[in-house]
Amino acid sequence: MPKVQQLELMSVDLPFRRGFRHAAAARTRSESLFLKCVTDTGAVGFGESLPRDYVTGETRDHALVLLERSMLPELIGMEFGSMEDVYDFLKTCDGKAPPEWVEPDTPQCAAWGAVDLALLDAFGRAFNQPVRLGKKAASPGPFRYSAVVSTDTRLKFLRSLLKLRAGGFEDVKLKVNPPDALRCARIARTILGRKTDLRVDANMSWNATEALETIRGLEQLNVRCIEQPLAARDFDGLAKLVRETNAEIIADESFSDRASLQRLLARKACTGINVRISKCGGLIAAAQRCEDALEAGLTLHIGCQVGESSLLSAAQLALISAAPHAKHFEGCYGKHLLRDDPVSPCLQLGYGGQPPRPPNGLGLGVEVDEAKLNQWVNQRVRGDGPVTAKTKGGLHVATG
Prior knowledge:
The protein is α/β, with parallel strands linked by helices. The chain contains 13 helices and 18 strands. The strands form five sheets. It has an eight-stranded parallel sheet with strand order 6-7-8-9-10-11-12-13.
């Protein structure tokens, strides 16, 4: 049985073509983690994650240390008899490390997301299989990606809207700040027209009073989908918005793992969720959260973290193939945003949000150019596997 022989964790800063700002953060680079997994059969796979402290409570440094000290030593030497064993292990983990490795309450979803993808990619190649969610290989059905626009400066905002109109986008999300939300929505509605599906993401920047007033104004502009209007933990305020407006209230920073989704459902604090692979603990857990949301009658959005490479985009296309009933899709920005994407093929949306063709290679289906990636690595942790093994939880874990 193939086993994990070597792991290499990299802190990576992929540069953006232009800065991207919203109410919770401003970035000019990706601030990513990449995890390389090598099996004893020579298969090489990669995982990617973008830790965001305001989303999962993990800074990149926190995630790197947690991986180095608590997760990677346990992963070295793990054996899997089949690809189904890999899927079963990750389903059992459900977006977090096994509890004997890391306390379940420890923020870890972004860290585990890199592990999830690295195992899927490496063992998919070891077993000569593509990563598929479900028994049959499937391509995503017809859908279009949204455009996402920052409203940080008036001139840049106007230019972006004009480009989107020329680019044929009919689904647009505005990243707004508290004082300018209505003004920016009016400008966007004027430029993009009445047929554009326009929604707003406040990134936790409003209080309940501001949110109620603004949402009622947005409804007059036929903008009824509002993402994360209040602070992540303001469940009472979010529930009030659900009760007192006709808006779709989408949870993003309020949601990452199973427990957070259950809290939202118990408090009736949202009508939908934004599922991002990196914040949900990887592809397998993200797929489960999609199922949970749809079973609970929530609206499903499938999103991405700003700065994802085509590695995460490939995983997202696999997720979309298993969640055809999602309402909005964000991702596959490729070199529209990144100055250098070290993954090929570059998975990049086209005219009007047309998705790229899903990759058809083994594992996640794409190839990481390590020479390109190494240009942007600023920290590296390596580990090599020991030689003996014991059984642990039905799997074989090597020990020194």
